[in-house]
Fold this protein.
Amino acid sequence: MTMADGKPNFRVVERLKIKIGDAKNLGKGHSTLRDGHCTITLDQEEIFRTATIEKAIDPFWGEEFEFEIPRRFRYLGVCVYERDRPLGRVTVRRDQLTSFNDKDHWFPLRPLNVESEVQGKIHIEIEFCESRGRLNVRLNEACELAITNGNCDPFADVTVRYTNDKTETQRTKVKKKTNSPVFDEAFAFTLPGLGGIPKQHLSGQSPTADWAELIVTLYHEISGSNTVFLGQVIIPLQGRPVSAWYFLQPRNRKSSLREDQSSNYPSVGSLRLKIHYTADHVLPSHNYERLKHLLMNSHSVQPITASTVYLLGEIIPNKIDSAQPLVRILLHHGQIVQTIRSLAIWEISKVTDANTIFRGNSMVSKMMDESMHISGMRYLHETLRPPIERLLAERRPCEIDPNRVKESTVIEHNFANLQIYVEDVIKAITTSALKCPTVMCQLFHTLKEVAITFFPENKEIKYSVVSGFIFLRFFAPAILGPRLFDLTKEQIDSQTNRTLTLVSKTIQSLGNLVCSRSNFKEEYMQRMIQAVYTEQNITAVRQFLEIISASAGPAQCTQDTPVTLKEGFLRKITTWMLTKRAQGRNKFGRKNFKQRYFKLTTRDLSYAKQKGKESLCTITLSDILAVERLQQESFNKNNMFQIIQPERILYIQANNCVEEKEWVDLLTKMCFSNSKRLTLYHPAAFINGTWLCCKSNIERTTGCQEVSTSVDHIQTSSVDVDRELSRIHALCVAHIDRFDSVLKACECKAVYPGDRLCLPILIEDPKTTFITLSTLREIIYTLEQEHRTVLRTIARETKYGSKQAPIGDDNYLLLAGRKDLSAHHQQKVW
């Protein structure tokens, strides 16, 4: 086990995928929901928002969100709104999330109550003096408090309750504009009946009541007597001194809010959610070397059905669970093409009908889907964003189904509108061949060559294999759900959703027709298919398919128009170095932040006052020396990062922690190969003549901290290989019983060969399969032992009541070490 400063070298990477389905029984007396939408929150911080559904009795959103969680949190919340009025909320505690994994679950919606869900923690010291006659309470500091309407001006009420139910309250000073206040205030209390008696005479006196409990309540001051409840801590006073951190709790409750405590909160409806939460416990890289080596050699194992990659795909029930980490690892190490080729050769060798190649739920199909998603996302945005933006901006009616229109006379007009949008998409796709990522071209070329080898008489197979992936599994799903593929942030109404569905259907059908496969399912679509199935379009599509699968990669093309990668409103402030200040620039302060619309392209970063307005400033990517997070103490603001340039630093505040991470990660990746990239930077700002991080008063001094490193070896995605290997380890542990059943099957088949045996998976070579599985199981066992050792060490060394493990909530590190409640410790499998 690697140790650093006496502590385990260990990190936890959390990821959440949540699908918001439909709602029912929303409120009393409401026949329909007007303009309803949902928000996703971590604690009280909004992270995502769904589209707005208009006038629905039981609204259906059907939106899925997936993101890495960049900070510690206590609650996942999903709130349903009617316009700006909250109707109800689903709240799930962090330690309960895994119990709902991969299940469609109807959650009761509870009335929204700001006092029922809080965040943050506080450090409290308690000391008894003069034979318990006096009590000293000190509030040192609090952190991670909730922010209300962009502000947090906290203060605390310190209340002592006596056994006679009387109370005494004292108050701290208000700390302005910070959600991590340092109070550093002490308060003294005396038992009833002992007030006014000198200290030296207290021991002989009898109080009229005893200590009961200490209640510390935090508020945000709005103005005068208007306050917002931030949370409270209730501590029984038992005569023992205390110095500890506490999680803030809901009002008048000593335990955290649980989703299943329905009796306290009447339901106002139900919301269907599908949640998948993972917390990967990642060890240092050297622990995963054997597992990585086993995966890297999969393509050379004969038969391929005895390889690690194939066996993981067959043994783990949901193939996409194993395909996602495997593809990322193989892409990172340049092994994806060889591995998919080996799997494809075996799969096609078992197919008798060329029309069914890669059409099933096979490992090749899942790995191709994931490969295109990772390596082709930038290409997808560059290709589809312009026609999708036009469609969303114009919002022309395109319904051509006679059963869906009130007047049949509008069908001709709608047909013309739909044809325009379809032709836009076809042109965008067929002219994008030279921009297709190299790794996708390599994969298409490999699959085409393998298919031609097995079906040499089929002249259309060279098109059908490629179009089955690029049209049916890449472009068509993105057109159908542009928000899921980050093609737009706009909310999409029902009419536009229907238009996108019709365009997606047409593109799928065109991809099939080019390969001489017709599948008209709806009569009303036949005319549209015939309209776009022109000689010009067929030629263009086939040329496109030929180019993207012709060789290992198309020739590089120059991009005349830069591609937009990310855009949105952020708040910024700029500090110029000495050379610029001499030209009249004033120094900046904490109040000088301005909201600007930022736009990042493949060429530069720019910002303007509003979207579509002329840029106020444009920064070429080659001039960005580093992009790093900024310490909160610099401006007393959260979610801040800095863009360092040769002559100035741009300080930017994002709207939430997830958005901050997205901007930092994307900017870092785009600028990582800059020749002038810094090696050291300042993690805090230069304010009032001093760097707040290292206290140097020299503005141009070298940074005091190393810049972030990157593991990005793929054109469009950074890969944390250790995290992906840890994901495979967790999947293997969760399904170790299936591994054991296959091992037993190998032994049986080796003794009793033949096809009559009932086997859990196909076993072509029992001996080689047994060797692979035994080696993999031994590696997983070693990793599991290492994990448990680390968790026990952390549990042993972490003090309950410390800042890392405050009192009041179940601490997952302590629980994992002491009670084996982590997801991959629920079964005693070894």
